[in-house]
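Researcher: Checking consistency across runs. Here is Cell adhesion molecule 2 again:
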Amino acid sequence: MLSIKSVCFFFIIPAAAYSTVKVRSQSQFPIVHNVTVTEGGTANMTCRVEHNDNTSLQWSNPAQQTLFFGDKKALRDNRIELVRASWQELTISISEVTLQDEGLYTCSLFTMPIKTAKAYLTVLGVPEMPEIDGLTKPVKEGDHVTLTCITSGSKPAAEIRWFRNEKEIKGAKEVNASGKTFTVKSSVQLQVDRDDDGVAYTCRVDHVALALSPQQATEVLEVHYAPRVEITHSAVHPQEGDYLKLECVSKGNPSPDPVLWTKDGSELPDIDRMIVEGRELTITSLNKTDNGTYRCEASNHLGTSSAEYVLYVYDPNALEQRGPDHALIGGVVAVVVFVTLCLIIVLGRYLARHKGTYLTNEAKGADDAPDADTAIINADGNHAHAEEKKEYFI
Ligand SMILES: *[C@@H]1O[C@H](CO)[C@@H](O)[C@H](O)[C@H]1NC(C)=O
Ligand SMILES: *[C@@H]1O[C@H](CO)[C@@H](O)[C@H](O)[C@H]1NC(C)=O
Ligand SMILES: *[C@@H]1O[C@H](CO)[C@@H](O)[C@H](O)[C@H]1NC(C)=O
Ligand SMILES: *[C@@H]1O[C@H](CO)[C@@H](O)[C@H](O)[C@H]1NC(C)=O
Ligand SMILES: *[C@@H]1O[C@H](CO)[C@@H](O)[C@H](O)[C@H]1NC(C)=O
Ligand SMILES: *[C@@H]1O[C@H](CO)[C@@H](O)[C@H](O)[C@H]1NC(C)=O
């Protein structure tokens, strides 16, 4: 018969033993971390054990080859070195990492049974310096251009961004895998116009392996376009004797030099006074005979353009010339006033004939007087006549 004590003994002892094993197995376990390294860099692979009863640690590569067993190097590879070896830690370093080094590395703790932990070594492929294709120099205005930017060797696939003078524009992306890395291509299509001349198109490669210094390529467009011409002038109402400067502002690429000045379809008539300097035509002392249509013409291999300026040389006495207008108006006003006055006088005389002596006297004097005052004076000294008149009218 089993006593309660012995029953307890059988249950408690295994339980105690089990718990001891459990504690040891929890702590005596290798711990590793995934590592990411840029191609060409150095990766440290660390394996730790919290509580180790002097059991050996080992690192092996994705091909299951042992790299280090404790502090003993197992694989002949100069790139792989021991950093630290103790019962608690085994750290090795792999320098000049290549994409082939990527994979699952195993840390083994030689307990019974062996305990392992796996760390993934990620190798980043550095994108190659991008190149811009598809640009011919120069391009003609109106041409369609497709700029292509290609970068290969990235892992993971790189991002390509386009900028037109710092301002981002959208590109069309295409990604192809080649082995472990990617070739990324991005293109932008543009119809070139004159505003694109001198504009920089930049293709920038963004990638986790280039976090601090993205790679980029830039192409500056050179756009050829036919000239466009306009004339600016120095005077609004050029007068005789004035100095006049006309500038032929012509924009074109290549620069349309020199410009050609003509007057009324032929050569400039007076070389001495009409001086052409660069794009400017200066007429030193304007004369009425300079009146006419001045034309400047500029051309390059893409075309010809011209602009015209009609010169009207004002007379310096322009104000006096305009005088007759005022004189005319004044004259008309004077005539109107005179006619009105005449009408008043005629009307006055007509009324006087019907009102009798008083008015007749005045009117009588007015007959041979040059003006009203004289008429009154005359009238005063002619009472006799006035009486005659009075009789006549009554
Ligand atoms: C690797 O470990 C060594 C020694 O601890 C240290 O000097 C080095 O910076 C580490 N390298 C990396 C990439 O962590
Ligand atoms: C582990 O090894 C050291 C010597 O390297 C020794 O002093 C120690 O007693 C050992 N510990 C165990 C638990 O075996
Ligand atoms: C380590 O990397 C592997 C493969 O990429 C992944 O499956 C695993 O979850 C990672 N482990 C940790 C702790 O990040
Ligand atoms: C990707 O592959 C396609 C088909 O093989 C090919 O036509 C294209 O040019 C490739 N693109 C790049 C960026 O390599
Ligand atoms: C304008 O030109 C005519 C003929 O060339 C000349 O006789 C005249 O003196 C000139 N007038 C002025 C203001 O220069
Ligand atoms: C100058 O040109 C105007 C028209 O532009 C014309 O009416 C005028 O008669 C011209 N004067 C001379 C002196 O040629």
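Researcher: Does this match what you'd expect to see?
Model: One thing to look at in this run: The longest helix spans residues 318-355.
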